[in-house]
Sequence to fold (460 residues):
Amino acid sequence: MSDIKSNLVYEKKTVYEKAGKEVVAKAYEYAKGYMQFLDAAKTEREAVCEGIKLAEAAGYRPYTIGAPMKAGDKLYYNNRGKNIYLFRIGTEDINNGIRITAAHIDSPRLDLKQVPLYEDNGMALLKTHYYGGIRKYQWLATPLALHGVVVKQSGEVIDVVIGEDETDPVLYITDLLPHLAAAENEKPVAKAFVAEKLNVLVGSMPLDGEEKDAVKLGALKFLNEKYDIVEEDLLSAELSLVPAARARDVGFDRSLIGGYGHDDRCCAYPSITAMIDANEAKHTTMCILVDKEETGSDGVTGMQSSLITDIIAEIAKAMGGNEALVRANSKCLSSDVTAIFDPNFTDVFEQRNAALLGCGVGMCKFTGARGKSGTSDATAELVAWVRRCLNEAGVVWQTCELGKVDVGGGGTVAKYMANHNIDTIDLGVGVLSMHAPYELISKVDLYEAYRAFVAFYNFE
Ligand code: MN
Ligand code: MN
Fold:
């Protein structure tokens, strides 16, 4: 290669080419902890529990709003069991801002309706209402597990998990046999698969001595014996069907990870482990694992809740700072996934600006749809700052857009952070088959995300 070319031309390279064998070996090792996290945390509530375990093991302790704090404190705020804020008070003046990463821990799935259970033609079934953006056909004819909580009138919370233990039964949504699918095959996908047909089969044996709805009664008896609940308790429950499959190495070379809910646990896990490992950062650091991103970030546990500004205000007050100044000088990485260029679907990607598999963590300056609608569009100054941060740390990274202009689009929590006058940019892991029940990521991309977040917490 000529000097002119090597000096002037930007070339995207893989982690394998740029970072070398040692980093790749570390990435494979790091993936093991991530895969355990993925299997243990299939819902936001479970992710909060796993997050607290990691945080407490690293010396973090619960924070209550209004409690005093001092430099060196490592605290976490558990928001209703579905959203968690970890923060560590640095030695630097709080007015210089907080280094924040924000990842979401909810994933697309099938929630149960409030009155879910019924019987039809000898089958006990549960009605569902899908959560987030799914392609409905992907949820048919595949083993599903039931996760969530039932909250009794007394306030007692009962944790439910069925379908994860090897000895557990799994649940299942039936699909149409191809022999009888001629008419369905003629329909567009959006019409062929109907939400109200996503009814989950949970049993088929009638209860002895019952005439009407004997199979439904059998299901209720099972739930009563296992969890001490009655049908009305399901009215105050949050129960979800998630894939029963566990995370596995994918590929002859084991370079990929298949699993449910990479979006966005493949950013949540690097965020929280980086936060814990960046223990010497002089800045105050924060890691937010947030709920409800897949439905628009609304609600008390979503990123649009005022809790973010409440907590920043509490930190500013406790550390003698000015809240507005703290926000103005803070920086946030919205750590969410992006799409990896897929050679099976080249028509929707613009290859030069798509994230490529194995080319490291992906930075999206903007998200949104059409003419960048609905994006916070990070400043070029922030992009340059992050670029310097990542390059000085030797992190392998790439810029990316989700897909071709006008083909579609998507959003993240970035704009909700940016709307609080916090400089924010998206930085995360690329995913293949995003939002499918079983998604794919690259181990080296995952590890570069971790390295990027550590660099971000520690930089300047
Ligand atoms: Mn996401
Ligand atoms: Mn998503």
User: Anything to note?
Assistant: DSSP finds 13 helices and 22 strands in the chain.
